[in-house]
Fold these 2 entries.
Entry 1:
Amino acid sequence: MNTALSWIKAYVPELECTDQEYCDAMTLSGTKVEGYERLDKNLEKIVVGQIEKIERHPDADKLIVCQVNIGAETIQIVTGAPNVKEGDKVPVVVDGGKVAGGHDGGPLPEEGIAIKAGKLRGVPSNGMMCSIEELGSTREMYPEAPENGIYIFGEDAEVGSDAVEALGLKDTVFEYEITSNRVDCYSVLGIAREAAATFRKPFCAPEVMVQENGEKVEDYISVEVKDADLCPRYTARVCTNIKIAPSPKWMQRRLAASGIRPINNLVDITNYVMEEYGQPMHAYDLDQIAGHKIIVRRAKDGDEFQTLDGQVRKLDSEVLMICDAEKEIGIAGIMGGENSKITDDVKTVLFEAATFNGTNIRKSAKRIGLRTDASGKFEKGLDPRNAEAAINRACQLIQELGCGEVVGGIADVCQPMKEPVKIKFDAKKVNGLLGTEISEEEMLGIFRMIELKYDEETQMLEIPSFRQDLLGAADIAEEVARFYGYDKIPVSLPNGEATTGKLSFKLRIEQKARDIAEYCGFSQGMCYSFESPKVFDKLLIPEGDALRRAITIANPLGEDFSIMRTVSLNGMLNSLATNYNRRNKEVRLYELGNIYIADELPLTKLPEERVQFTLGMYGEGDFYSMKGVVEEFFDCIGMKKKAVYDPASIKPFLHPGRQADIVYEGKKVGYLGEVHPEVCDNYGIGTKVYVAVLDMPEVIPFATFDRKYEGIAKYPAVSRDISMVVPKDILAGQIEAVIAQRGGKILEGYQLFDIYEGAQIKQGFKSMAYSITFRAKDRTLEESDITSVMKKVLNGLEGLGIELRQ
Amino acid sequence: MKEKLAQIKAEALKQIEASEQLERLNEIRVNYLGKKGQLTAVLKGMKDVAPEDRPKIGQMVNETREEIEKVLEASRVKMERALREARMKAEVIDVTLPAKKNNVGHRHPNTIALEEVERIFVGMGYEVVEGPEVEKDYYNFEALNIPDGHPAKDEQDTFYISGDILLRTQTSSTQVHEMEKGKLPIRMIAPGRVFRSDEVDATHSPSFHQIEGLVIDKNITFADLKGTLAEFARELFGDKTKVKFRPHHFPFTEPSAEVDVSCFKCGGSGCRFCKGSGWIEILGCGMVHPHVLEMSGIDPEEYTGFAFGVGLERIALLKYEIDDMRLLYENDIRFLKQF
């Protein structure tokens, strides 16, 4: 909300402060100032001058030479402006002064434009006459200003006086951010009331007195509210003999500063009252209202209605309408109808100031797709008392501005008003909540400033109806706090029972995952939780696969963000693709993020959120490097047993011959492999990609931070190398299983140290060599120990069709 | 005999002095002190010496041996040192050649910022907890004093799954889960992912992260809230950081505040970063609304508390001067490697 400070000062006449002081103080008391702008920025040495004489420039057809009386003296000014004549009063910037902008109305330069005496085609010119654009404003806001010409003052302007002041530009416009609970502050009066309390100055609300003609409103209009649940109050007044004309300058200036374009007295009055009271008003041409009757009722499903912006709107039975005896004439609280629009020929006006159900207006505006200034105010839920105050204020202005006559009385259909809210006041409790020692007197002083009445006997505070946000003791504490000053409240730290600061086991394991991934060269990425249903095709996931059972977002930002991911690979592959496209070599990324698994679709209960530890890489490294990362991680989180890599894995997005399920103690905890070349194509990655995905909820139960020292071997180890010719389809895992199983207690470890397929080896076989280490904890091994174990191992290997080489 | 020994010694020393290689020193050692060496020969000739002279001669032989050994050893040390010097001279390397790095990976700036925040609050006795990202309407809104029809519910541009299941718009929902557990006092922070239907641009993302904080105990005051967050701000942004509390409105706290910190770039004098104001808004907070306590089964007459919510991306963008939020989700390695 934007408002000129001069308008606020109209109701807080004693307010005196600099712009910055005002900004700071208001922000600290809860009316946040987003920023402010001085309207007289870069306007220096500008006075009202009167043109006494105009002569032609001797050397230029398009220039004239003016003698301009600026009060103390008469100066010569050369101008090219076409619209001035002798006797005109104009803004004049004198030598050494400054204007805000150029005459073309382009963006204003930060430092303004300095004006110096000089010569134009040889003729001295000692200043400049200004257009409204040069004064930093626009014709929108100053409708009386001529197009492409010098601004011309009215007769009453005083020669030699400050032109900036005469134009109403000696002012500052403040922009406020009003919080949604403070409906009352979406108005000049509301902000003025806050300003008065903030600066401890009296607040003077406008005195509203309406001079009525002898007629009665009942003779003009009757009002019936059929859907009272959506319209707690409807007030209407009638004004006759309407004379449409421009509104006075002071009103135009205030509206313009608020960002509202002045139009004519009638429109300006409704806008002015909306700004001043925060109460939207509507004006109907009474002669267009059939039967001189207003009916407030719901629309019918499927109705259509043309709003005054010319658009046809689809209605439904939840939209509240303003109707006359025959037809609908406006969408309540949102926009009036084309059919009752005010024209310049209007004779009799019906003013409406009503209170509508805020939620209903908000929802209707959303469904219809039409949010207006008015609906924006109504949807916050207005105070029914304000409607009456505002409509009377509008009538007062009609009469005072000579815009028309006010018919006596007010048509008012009003539901019983709520009793004023009463809140128990206990100064000790307020101090207890705030941690302060503010005296009761000081608190009561604050309440008086913001118009809360205190009854000493009952210790109850009575809340005025415009403060709909004050409902309980905590709200009262906030009022005390903000006018006492948040900055004056002391600082302390909670004392009381000590608590242990900690991370859950799950989070600690995730931290280890990050550590290990990073040690292994992987950087952390972050991916969205939602993605496109097209990813299933990209990942070659077949129709009917469980992974396709994704949760759908009802109102997504578009198809690309419409389902919750059931697999983490799309994000990883997208990120790798981004890097690949940008020619980044050697990329290793990891991500820790959820997938969302629904028990049942559509969702009836919350889905399972499973953290996936996803690693992906291209460049240096292969399947086995990725496997190494997995094992480093397991090792680091205390998973000391040997994980099994099951080649029976059949992930459609991985290379069929280069993938494995990761099995730990019989449980599948993840998978790894080379990404299927077709999937790489789908993501536009022209190189081999390796991924590993660990399903953390399966991993974490095996993880532990417990460690036990096992002693460092005292007795020497003995190793034996075996060299084998192995059928091609026998896996290292099978060989190792035999060694592990048959190696017995004295087996310490084994290591593949050579693998070879090629010319020297017979067809269908490969050569493999292992080094097996034996050690006993309690003695030095003897040859016989080893021979007997080796025999078992070799027998086992022979069982796999393996031949030993010499 | 004495003369003979002196002669052997003189000869040996002369040879040692003349030798230039370690091998030569060895030869000398063997030649004089070895089993068939000259000194040994002298000892072997002892049988020809009168028994009463033998100890004396023996002693003389030993003295000679020791002296030769001493000189030999000194000479060896000297020679080896010279050799090592020469070798090292030949081993000079170009220390400005490129390093062989291990190429460790880098943490995401969000995580770095989060771990900072966690460190601070864990140090103050807060437990780090988590809550579901797909959430019931009740926990995201109603239990936080945002009933159906409340404007705040519309303002938040919620993604819905079905009628009462949605993607949480704030980590405040985790507050409610913690309070419902009924274990008091509570000191927790709840980091996590939240979702709002904002189009992706330089300052918006439909998914981002918040950290919620909640303290509930007897006699918790607004002053405690101020003190806690002032401490947090100093830890996160530096000792000199000042904190400003401005009244604000959140449905689930009362009184509520927004918190600004003095600009950590210019120290408060005003710069491009703080848009000239000297202050940067970093979080929202307040005293837990009595109604919120009540709904979660906590007696507001006995317990009070405070809550705060920080935008993680906001902290990360500010702290690391990242000017476009989209960078956080692109995962370009050239971006990630800077952290």
Entry 2:
Amino acid sequence: MKDSLRQSMALFHTWSGLLLGWLLFAMFATGTAAYFQDEITRWMQPEVTGSADPEASAQGAVRYLNKVAPDAISWYITLPNGRSATTQVYWQPGDGTRGKRGETSAVLDQAGRAITVRETSGGFFLYRFHFDLHYMPVLWARYLVGIAAMFMLTAILSGIVTHKKIFADFFMLRFGKGQRSWLDAHNVTAVIALPFHLMITFTGLVTLASMYMPWGIAANYASPSVFQEQVFGREPAAERSGRAQPLVDLAPLMRAASAGWGGKQVGYISVTNPGDATARVLFTRSPGAAIAARGETAAFAGATGKDLAAHTASGAALATESVMIGLHTGRFAQWGLRWLYFLSGIGGTVMVGSGLVLWTVKRRARLPDPARPHFGFRLVERLNIAAIPGLATGIAVYFLANRLLPADLAQRPDREIDSLFLAWLAVGLWGMVRPAGRAWTETLALAGACFAAVPVVNALTTSRGFAASITNGDWLFIAFDLVMIALAACFLHAAGKVAQHRAKKAAAPLRRTSRKAVSQ
Amino acid sequence: MIHTLAIALACAAFLMLALSMKRHQRDLVGRTVPEARARLARIAGWLLIALCWALEGWMLGPALGTIVWIGEVSMGAWLAIAIINWRADRPAR
């Protein structure tokens, strides 16, 4: 009875893991990178140096928006924090049009000047790809990602049942033993960070729970917007009165809001009807200041600065959701914990990747004719090549494109993103046309070479190369280079291992057949 | 600094737990360990993990402390696995 449960769980684990493993690998890899999205953005805008003061940045942003979008319906301002030095602004044009991306948003420095030197989506793209994917409608992407996450959760649970000796094999990581080593790697990466994997998968589903399970809201509220209004107290936008009245200085209001939250800083500002007598300013607490992702808010009248004592959403369910999203995104984490998040994420990526490889390793031994595997096997093997070295190469090329594309290229951020996918596609195609074993060596080596090229190209194209970063104590750039070198080393090492393995196999076909005879 | 100490504690905890397991004893100390000692190592291991949690909880509060503790325990386990492998790889004495 017990064994049949384990067998059915193993079967389920194998196939659910395989079916969505490729997507999960991409989600894990980009999600892991997204823990450093602000740092990646800073690396991708090497012209921006130093740090910015939130209050001065808010004033600068208002100056910019007064000039560019004085009659907007609303402004949204994301302030710099300890990790970023720029202000992101976004506005809804007054004529009600949605406006193209890039025309209704800008990245500003502390003085409120638009930064146009090197336009990039930076780490934000990797973050968005993690759940919105790309080149497809966001809604579809989120359903797809949700299905993958659901499978992930069931794969983890069935994996725990399948894993026979979770405690006895806790420390088991044997190298150079073929299938056994892949199983060890899969088990160890899964078990060591098991609390993280469970947390990240479950909370990931929670971030989009009201989209995946809309029925609770549908049964109790007339429409989702009514629910939003009742829970979050979003007041319907007041009509512009037509009486122009300049916005009061935001700095004292920010201090007042911050004082009301026990000193936690303001992270976001939204202003509705700016420049009008009905203007309303809403401050939201910085996500770095507490675990809960939904920050406290404070509202003020934009024309007078009067505290509007806004309704703040509360309740146990909302607080739980807020903390879960906070745990998932890790925005509260200081640098030490952020690295732990990152390393756990790497562990998760390796877990998914080793699981995918394990599927083929396990079946290769049982193939009737190993030289000519059946279609399904070949497909999985090729997709593994596309998914693992392919995505890695793509991300490295994304960083390289940031340094190599001309600064004044039209739609530069999109071209950077296209480079990622073109490289990914190229590696995928390469994996299709080459013999599988050779393709593994070549694509892993390519990924390694691309990562190794990043610090070199960075040193050649900017004044913030490794040596300069060391002398300036520029830890962000030092760490970025080191991570690139570490990734390069891992991929090149893996390429070497595959090549070695292939050479051994080619040298000893006799031994292999004799061993097979023995095992039969 | 205190976090480095916590990771070191977690690593020590897992080494203790490994020491309580027959298959790792020869790698770690070159011989098998009597059952009574092994039980002691197991208790010490779990106590160290608990101590690590108490330390972080005391430093950062129960909420953030627990999150950091889970991350550090994972790190400690990785280090322990690295040490076990390094010891196992050395030629037998």
